[in-house]
Amino acid sequence: MLTRQDGAMFKIGNLVEDFIDTNRIDFIENSMASRSFLSYRGASSHPNLLLTHPNLTPSVNHHQIQAPGGAGHKILSFIISNTEEAHAPRVARRNLKNANWEKYVSLTNTVLGNCVLDLNNGKALDKIIATIFACANVCIPKGHIKNAKPFWNDKLQTLKEEKDLAKDKADSTDVLEDRIFLRKKQAILKKKILNAKLLLLTNF
To answer: CB atoms < 10 A from the CB of 64, how many?
Structure first.
C-alpha cells in the first residue's frame, strides 16, 4: 500500500499492520470470510479493509454484498449496533423561578440551628446535606423553566427596555451619537445584571 507525498513514496501498509498488531485498531473480517475482489487473472484480493477502534469491535458487523453486474466486485457493508443499556433517567430539575427563597432560608436556619456545632465534621456534613434536600423539597418545586433568571427584577426590565429602544433608534438612524448612547445603555445594563447576580449569591 503506497502513497505519494512531496515527491516521496511512503509505505503506509506497514504502519497499518503495526496499529493492528499493537491493538490500536482492529481489522474486521466479513461474516463469510470471503474476498471482496477477483482480478482479471482470477487471483483473489481484499482491498476493502474495515478498520475500527477496539472499543467498537464487538458492535461492528461486516459482510459483503454481491454486485449485480457480476464483474467480481462486491459491496462492503457494515452495521454498528449499540448494545449498551439505556441511560438512567435524569434527575428532576428544580423550578428556581417559583422557589420560595425566604422560606427556604428561614427553614434551613431553623432546622440546622446550632446542632452542627456539636457534631464532628462527617456527621455535620451529612446533617447539612439532608437538611438542604428536605428544605428544597418543601420550598423549591420540581420542574424546569427555560431561561430562568432568579436575579431579574423590575429595575433590570426597565433598563432592558431602554436599551432595546436605544438599539432600534441606532439601527434606524445610524448616527454616531445614537451608537454611543446605545453603548452606554448596554454597559449600564450589563453592570446592573452583574451586581444583581452578586447580591443574590451573597444573600443566598
So the answer is: 20
CA terminus-to-terminus distance, the chain: 66
* Tens digit of each residue's pLDDT (9 = 90 or more) over 70-86: 555 566 666 777 655 55
Q: What is the CA radius of gyration of the chain?
A: 33
How far is 166 from 26, CA to CA, in rounded Å? 61
pLDDT digit string, tens, across residues 88-140: 556 667 777 788 888 988 888 888 776 666 667 777 788 888 888 888 888 88
Sign, CA dihedral 102-105-111-115, equals negative
Residue 186 CB partners (closer than 8 Å, separation 6+): 163
Cα–Cα distance, 164 to 154 (Å, whole number): 15
Query: 199 CB contacts (<8 Å, ≥6 apart)?
Result: 151
Q: What is the pTM of this model?
A: 0.35
26: nearest Cα among 60, 72, 76, 1? 60
Q: State the cell numbers at 95.
A: 423550578
